[in-house]
Amino acid sequence: MILVGIGSNLSGKAGSPIETVKESLRAMQTRGMTILTCSDFYDTPPVGPSGQGHYVNAVVRLGSVIGPHGLLRELQTIENQFGRQRSVKWGARTLDLDVLDWHGHLVHGRLNLPHPEISRRGFVLRPLMDVAPEWRHPETGLSVRALWNRLSVTERLKIMKL
């Protein structure tokens, strides 16, 4: 199973963050990716520098013959098409596309899989439960539901379905 996280909190070429997320789904399908399932969209608070607006987040389950590093390159090409700027770590962005998992493989280097923050990010775990409720962390064996339940109630309540 291939899982990709999507986020946006700045308007860009495609319009509002929600329109950017929708357009990014279309862009993925033109670059060798088949969207098998897309989660609901969620309104989530930012992680990182203060002063940012809330994000629109989603997770997609993909079908593709592209390997993990090729997938990362394709996703970064799409981000660039949507005006992604990489100037501030965890800063506001028009589009963020993250490979979360690629068939349960463990990868370390320029690309780290599963995504190193997946276990701590409610904005990933909540939509991940929509598309892959059976998913288990490849290193810990914990289910997505167990990881979600490890988050504080306060953090879970901040993530709202749009």
UniProtKB/TrEMBL annotation:
<comment type="function">
    <text>Catalyzes the transfer of pyrophosphate from adenosine triphosphate (ATP) to 6-hydroxymethyl-7,8-dihydropterin, an enzymatic step in folate biosynthesis pathway.</text>
</comment>
<comment type="similarity">
    <text>Belongs to the HPPK family.</text>
</comment>
<dbReference type="GO" id="GO:0005524">
    <property type="term" value="F:ATP binding"/>
</dbReference>
<dbReference type="Pfam" id="PF01288">
    <property type="entry name" value="HPPK"/>
</dbReference>
<keyword id="KW-0289">Folate biosynthesis</keyword>
<keyword id="KW-0808">Transferase</keyword>
<keyword id="KW-0547">Nucleotide-binding</keyword>
<dbReference type="GO" id="GO:0046656">
    <property type="term" value="P:folic acid biosynthetic process"/>
</dbReference>
<comment type="pathway">
    <text>Cofactor biosynthesis; tetrahydrofolate biosynthesis; 2-amino-4-hydroxy-6-hydroxymethyl-7,8-dihydropteridine diphosphate from 7,8-dihydroneopterin triphosphate: step 4/4.</text>
</comment>
<feature type="domain" description="7,8-dihydro-6-hydroxymethylpterin-pyrophosphokinase">
    <location>
        <begin position="89"/>
        <end position="100"/>
    </location>
</feature>
<dbReference type="GO" id="GO:0016301">
    <property type="term" value="F:kinase activity"/>
</dbReference>
<protein>
    <recommendedName>
        <fullName>2-amino-4-hydroxy-6-hydroxymethyldihydropteridine pyrophosphokinase</fullName>
        <ecNumber>2.7.6.3</ecNumber>
    </recommendedName>
</protein>
<dbReference type="InterPro" id="IPR000550">
    <property type="entry name" value="Hppk"/>
</dbReference>
<keyword id="KW-0067">ATP-binding</keyword>
<dbReference type="GO" id="GO:0003848">
    <property type="term" value="F:2-amino-4-hydroxy-6-hydroxymethyldihydropteridine diphosphokinase activity"/>
</dbReference>
<dbReference type="InterPro" id="IPR035907">
    <property type="entry name" value="Hppk_sf"/>
</dbReference>
<dbReference type="GO" id="GO:0046654">
    <property type="term" value="P:tetrahydrofolate biosynthetic process"/>
</dbReference>
<keyword id="KW-0418">Kinase</keyword>
